[in-house]
Amino acid sequence: MVNVFFDTSAVVPLIFREPRSAQARQAWNESSLRIGWQWLRVETEAALCRRKGNAAAWSLWRKIETGIHWVEPDGEWWEHLKVFNRGVGLRAADAGHLYVMERCAASVADLVLVTFDGEMANVAKKRGVGLFPY
Amino acid sequence: MTNMNGHHNPVKVNSADLKTHLGRYLRSVEQESASWEICIRDRTVAYLIPARSSEEASANLPHSPLLALKRAGMKIETATSFRRGDLAEPVVAGDGRQDVVTVDEMRRGRQW
Questions:
Q1: H-type alpha helices, chain B
Q2: DSSP letter string over chain A?
Q3: CA of B76: which chain A residue's CA is closest?
Q4: Do B90 and A60 touch (CB under 8 A)?
Q5: Of B74, B78, B105, B106, which to mutate for an interface test with A (greatest number of A Cβ within 10 Å)?
Q6: What confidence tens digit (pLDDT) does each residue in B72-84 have?
Q7: ipTM score here?
Q8: pLDDT > 90: percent of chain A
């Protein structure tokens, strides 16, 4: 069992059948603590709208939503995020996921990132962030 | 019976006492939302916490990851379901395609 931090790219395949659905389910089933940044909820619902998710898809999302601890840094953290991304150069929201992950990993032992975004995974690896092993 | 500590910070109880008075301890958990730290020879081996608010209670346990996150300045909306293996299989999206990596498509559409 592992403590995991989900990126949106690893949650949407839990809802829609996609090439990475099996790996996403593996991460879900093998995790004892699941954390995600609040923005993930906005991105996931955007995916549900754009892929025309039916009632079953929305129901599945609601269930997933209750199984994740949703976090958001307190205070004026945008300034810190801007500085953080000057060093990593990710797309804005992706930088947000990685920044919040690193903040959480500083407090939660053995926290690993679950992402299927290659660019984010590469940056995370270079920064020494633990990745969920597939 | 109360743990004398605001019901959230668990108080130590040894396993022999727990065994003898299990009913009382369970009632204190159910009726007073008490939390207990169960020890064998002063070594903590488990926690007895309310089931209906287990996430809230666990956030108040020593060494809890959620407590650590709160201390590190994170606002947390705790999960309400932790069961594993009960997630239904993914469904086919409304467009009928199963070869699409949705988030890749979305992120490709916003390079910035």
A1: 15-20, 22-32, 54-58, 65-71, 102-108
A2: -EEEEE-HHHHHHHHB--TTHHHHHHHHHTEEEEEEETHHHHHHHHHHHHTT--HHHHHHHHHHHTTSEEEEE-SSHHHHHHHHHHHH---HHHHHHHHHHHHHHTTSTTEEEE---HHHHHHHHHTT--B---
A3: A71
A4: yes
A5: B74
A6: 999 999 888 766 6
A7: 0.88
A8: 94
Counting Cβ atoms within 10 Å, is residue B42 exposed (0-12), middle (13-18) or buried (19+)? exposed
pTM more than 0.80: no
Sheet holding A111-114, edge to edge: A111-114, A2-6, A31-37, A69-73, B74-77
Q: Give the residue, A130 or B7, on which the prediction is more confident.
A: A130
Q: Kindly determine whether residue A67 and residue B82, on different chains, have CB atoms separated by under 8 Å.
A: yes
Contacts of A47 in chain B (CB under 8 A): 102-103, 106
